[in-house]
Structure formats: structure tokens, C-alpha cells
Amino acid sequence: MPTRRLPAEIARGLRDVAPLLIGIIPFGLVAGAAAVEAGLRPLQAIGLSVVVFAGASQLAVIDLLGQNAALSIVVITGVVINLRILMYSASIAPSFQSFRPRWKAITAYVLTDQAYALSISRYAEKELSKTERRRYYLTVALTLWIVWQICTIVGIIIGARVPDEWGLGFAVPLVFLSLLVPAAASRPAIAAALVGGVVSTVGTIYNFPLNLGLITGGATGVVAGVVVDTYTNTPGQSSSETNH
């Protein structure tokens, strides 16, 4: 009995996103467990995951909530970390220009680093119709969303059952460190990671006012990266040429 095959771009999207799930699964589990450790109730933790849906931002918000930071600082931190989404949106918007408003709203909600990177690469590789572009993007983005939500829920359940004396406070720092390793692929990136990490750690240890350690670390890390990029390049030489 013949079986109906998936549309080409849906099958391609599933194939492309599959390797990324290896990293998403433990990340989501940690996010769920950390939310419980920070004092959020299960429904609050699930709501945060559904509404925010942004790994690094979500963990930063959870960490600040666990430190009883002011709500304004929590919100500002989440927004600052997610500012890159504005650049992604501006870059990918022409590909979605012909979509109906409801599709634009859905694509905006599920936009992530991985969905953006895979989709932009796919669109540059082959000329796709509007329907094909939508199928590919939503296959990638919704797969990531579903796996993330399932993993955070499992993490919440596991975290709720872990004895308090075990503690899960180490989880958030370890995940952020794991994110820095693949990102630090050039001298500016390494400088940004080192400076940002050190300042954030110092800010946490010495309790910067208003729990601003994370924001201060992020800002100084960006400045350090820009400074290193500026002073390691000569006129007419790009950073990519310097690093090869």
C-alpha cells in the first residue's frame, strides 16, 4: 500500500533540524529544573517557557528570579539578551513579506537562532516559493518549539522531585559556559566571553546593586569584543582575514 510522502521542504526541514535537537534536549531539561530551583511553581515555569521561548534569556531570567531581583531588572535583562532577534527579524523579513498577518505573527513568535540560521541558509541555497519557504521555516521552528516545551516540562517534573539539599544552582552557570565554548571562535569572541564571564561572576559574588551583575557582564563583554576587533584589524583588513 503506497504511503503519502511529506512535502519536500517539510522533509528537508526535519532532516536539517534533527542534529540540533541533541543540544536542545539537555538545555531544555536544565531550564525546567532551574526554574523549580529558583522557586517558580510548575505552572509558572511552564508559562515562562511558553511566553518567553528563548533559551539564554529564559535561563538568565530564572537566575535573577532566584536571586529575588527587581522585576524591572529581570525584564530589562531578558530584553537586552534577546535584542539580537531584532536583527534576525530585519534580515529574514523580506522572505516573509508576502505572508498573511497571522502567518507573520506565528513566524515571529517561534523565531530563534537556530530557525533563523537554517532558514536563511536554505533560502540562499535554493529559490523557493512562498509556500515552500513557510513550510521549511515552520517545520524547523515548530520542531524546536515542541521539543523545547516537552524538555522544559520534563525538567520541571524532575526538578520538583529532586531533594532540596541536592541543589540545582550549578545548572545555569554550566549551561551558559557550554554555550560560550562553540561561540568563542575568534579573538573578539574569546575576549567578549572572558571579560563578560569574569565581570558577571564578580557581580554575582559581590552582589552588584539591583542584581546588575549579568547586564554589566554582558555590556562589558560586548565592549571588550569591539575593542579587540578594532585593534587587531589593520585598515582594509577584515576580522575574518585576521583570524585565518
TrEMBL record:
GO terms for cellular component: plasma membrane. It is found in: Cell membrane. Keywords: Cell membrane, Membrane, Transmembrane, Transmembrane helix, Transport. GO terms for biological process: L-valine transmembrane transport. The chain crosses the membrane at residues 20-40, 136-160, 166-183. It is a multi-pass membrane protein. Belongs to the AzlC family. This is ABC-type transport system permease protein. It comes from Haloquadratum walsbyi (strain DSM 16790 / HBSQ001).
